[in-house]
Amino acid sequence: MSEGFKLTEKEMKYISLFEAATGVTAIDCVESGDLIVFVVREGDLKKVLSKGGSKIQEFSRIIKKRVKVIELSEDPGIFVKNALMPARLSGPVRIASRPDGRKIAIASVEPKDKGSCHRKERQDHRACQTF
Fold it and tell me: Domains in the chain: how many in total?
């Protein structure tokens, strides 16, 4: 995930508050403007969104920020797909290596969903690039 990155004190505080509000352990967190993205273990997203998402909505209201929760997957392609939701992908996610050894994900979004990737979701995707 975010190897080489360290959580800030503020992000650690957000994780603590998130865990208290939802009862779910956050593996990672990144803040980007008015958005905070949390990563939870595979299978834990259902717990976060239980009761019609009321826990996460209340948490978002308390911290006065938009909240996005991404479910971790051992499969990088599935993790990228989870991170890009609600946009639908038009094909599989490809993982490529750069000359410096870093890996990048290449994903094609359905034409109908491209608009969402160019508006407020841009901030979401910038935050997800950190992971």
Answer: 1
Place of tokens 């990737």: 117
CA distance 19 to 81: 24
For the chain, 131 residues long, give each residue's pLDDT as a single digit of tens. 445 568 889 999 999 999 999 999 999 999 988 999 999 999 999 999 988 889 999 999 999 999 999 999 999 889 988 888 888 888 889 889 999 988 888 888 888 876 665 555 555 555 555 55
Kindly report the CATH number assigned to the domain that includes residue 105. Answer: 3.30.300.20
4 in any annotated domain: no
* Residue span of the structural domain in which 108 resides: 9-129
Report the predicted TM-score, pTM, of the whole model to 2 decimal places: 0.79
For residue 114, the number of C-alpha atoms closer than 13 Å in the C-beta half-sphere is 7
Tokens of 100: 């410096």
Q: Is 109 inside a domain boundary?
A: yes
